[in-house]
Amino acid sequence: MVDGNIEVGIMKLDVAGRDARSLSELTHLATEHFSRVIQREPRLRVKSFTFAGPHLAPERDGYRALDFVQIGINEKTERQLAFLIIVTEVEIAAPTLSYLLALPSQLTNVAIISTRRLADFGSKEIKDHSLMADRLATLMLHCFGRLLNLNYHPERTNYMARIEVPADLDRMRQFTDGQFARMATNLPAEANDRYSKENRAAFILRQTAANIPRIVRGALRANPLRIATKLPTMIATALSVIIILIFGGETWDFSASASAGQLAVFVGASFVTATFVLYRAFSFKLVSTRHGKTSESSVVTAAATYLALVLTLICLFVLFGLLMYGVVLFVFPDPLMSTWTSDKDGSSFGAHMRLVAFLAAVGVLSGSLGGSADSRSVVRNVLFAVDET
């Protein structure tokens, strides 16, 4: 994907706006350490800069990580960076952990790191700037490895070891030769930094086709089944509609009489509409630079998001279908199915399959309208932030 230098941005984002906890000094020292380690890869260039903290409102447990991801996407696109690591001083809320040290988003090539938990507040460690800077640099290297799809390493002295508590960072001191080789291999594929010039639509289509493996990997990493479990309002809305429909004679009439082509068109249209509604609700904006250029990484992120939502809807379609087939088999007596429809036999296997497909499609379509009301932050966390540290 790239031929020349690959820029890694280190962005200090001081939300409090008063250089809390010596954020500038820590970030500067950590960036120097980070640069020394990755200089083994000659294509990498580190670019550090400061972003004036935005007016972000904290939730009960802290600031939302995905607010920082959206800021990171915007800055990464505008500055034409391949990767961006954001360092902030405020608490970042974690959906599944008691607190969050960092959150590398592999789909967006943006990582967020908080210095708030690098040491216990009030402890002697927090006053040791050398120790704090080393921990921050180690966390930067760990996140950068995750952005490059390096796997976790069992050796506790490795930068890719799993981090349970901040003190674990003190033992992490090296990448193996194999990991550096893997970095070199992954860099061209992961450093999406091409930008559109004139025809934006053609650029999007071209980059989508060129990045199909990465898009599929990103969608599968999001785990469509897990996304489905985060959409309770969608599931409840869908079941409410299809349970009412299955007890209506007109539904059985339509299913028994509709042709395979008509049903296929209805199912396809339902999927397109439902995916569009959910994508508008949960995706990040496909941002462009001030000059109207769209980045390759934005295209990959948008395509992976869309594919993940399509796969989620397929999972729900199958779930609704199996559930309705069970209702047809075990709830409705055969004499009723034979006589309920006007001029077709509703008890045949073909009629059952058409009924199940129709109801599942209605469930997906109606559920998407309710699903868009589900928590945007919860679903976005599953899509864009599956790797909490």
UniProtKB/TrEMBL annotation:
Any one GO MF annotation of this record: metallopeptidase activity
Native source species: Neolewinella aquimaris
Keyword Hydrolase: yes
TM annotation in the entry: 227-248, 260-282, 303-332, 352-371
Protein's GO biological process: proteolysis
InterPro entries xref list: MetalloPept_cat_dom_sf
Source organism, top-level taxon: Bacteria
Protein's name in the database: Putative Zn-dependent protease
Keywords: Hydrolase, Membrane, Protease, Transmembrane, Transmembrane helix
